[in-house]
């Protein structure tokens, strides 16, 4: 477990829309790079691995809870939906959340219902 970053700002729990989250994927130079885990939004801009071309860019601008729980870098797994994960995956997700909480500033939460609507739209595109 990484040591806590003592330079972190106090957590903010401002509501962040799904649209705002998706626009914070590193493709806009004036926007931070954000990643959500369990609906909590972290500013990961300080880590170049989340920038375009970085090994964790797949998580940028998304709620990556399911992907992190399953140790996946598949873009299709980058979703907040975690109802199908088992106890082992839930433990992994909780460990990732704690790691991010210690390392990155919490800047908000994904607005309630906003992400569910987007995931429903993604499902409709499949069928």
Automatic annotation (TrEMBL):
InterPro entries: Cyt_B5-like_heme/steroid-bd (IPR001199), Cyt_B5-like_heme/steroid_sf (IPR036400), MAPR/NEUFC/NENF-like (IPR050577). GO terms for molecular function: heme binding. Gene3D superfamilies: Cytochrome b5-like heme/steroid binding domain. It comes from the Eukaryota. Residues 1-29 are annotated as: Disordered. Residues 16-111 form the Cytochrome b5 heme-binding domain. GO terms for cellular component: endoplasmic reticulum; membrane. Belongs to the cytochrome b5 family. MAPR subfamily. PANTHER family: BINDING PROTEIN, PUTATIVE (AFU_ORTHOLOGUE AFUA_4G06240)-RELATED (PTHR10281:SF115), MEMBRANE-ASSOCIATED PROGESTERONE RECEPTOR COMPONENT-RELATED (PTHR10281). This is Cytochrome b5 heme-binding domain-containing protein.
């Amino acid at each position: 477990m990484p040591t806590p970053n003592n330079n972190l700002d106090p957590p903010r729990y401002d509501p962040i829309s799904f649209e705002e989250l998706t626009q914070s994927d590193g493709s806009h130079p004036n926007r931070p790079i954000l990643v959500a885990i369990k609906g909590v939004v972290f500013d990961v801009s300080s880590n170049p691995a989340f920038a375009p071309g970085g090994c964790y860019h797949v998580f940028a601008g998304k709620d990556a809870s399911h992907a992190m729980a399953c140790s996946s870098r598949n873009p299709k797994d980058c979703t907040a939906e975690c109802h199908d994960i088992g106890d082992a995956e839930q433990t992994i997700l909780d460990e990732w959340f704690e790691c991010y909480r210690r390392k990155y500033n919490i800047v908000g939460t994904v607005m309630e219902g906003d992400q569910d609507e987007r995931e429903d739209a993604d499902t409709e595109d499949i069928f």
